[in-house]
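Narrative summary of target 7.
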Amino acid sequence: MGIGYGNAQELVPSKTTYKPGEDIVLTFSDGPGNAKDWVGIYKEGQTPGDIGATLWFYVDGTDGGSTGKDTGSLVFKGSLSVGWYEAHLLEDDGYTILASVSFEVKRQSVVSVELSKA
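Modeled conformation, tokenized:
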């Protein structure tokens, strides 16, 4: 039987598509509030625990995890290359996934317009 926290945990990106080098902002809510709950970003298809996260923070925005938070936002400095990623809210320094979301890092399309005299 799973642990119930009342509401479903949620993890939401500030947008679904980012540019290379752009900061990734993820907001989590209704987590258990443990100091060692954390958010990890993985390449799409990677399983937390089988491989280390590409980027991660504890819910207090540090790599030490001293303050529990059940709701908040984390800013991951823009170092992700082009591709699809999955972010996971994970419980208490472990790999129990509480919430997940996918997003893409994508180069902007360049639109070329050619003008001619009629």
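The two ends are 72 Å apart (CA to CA).
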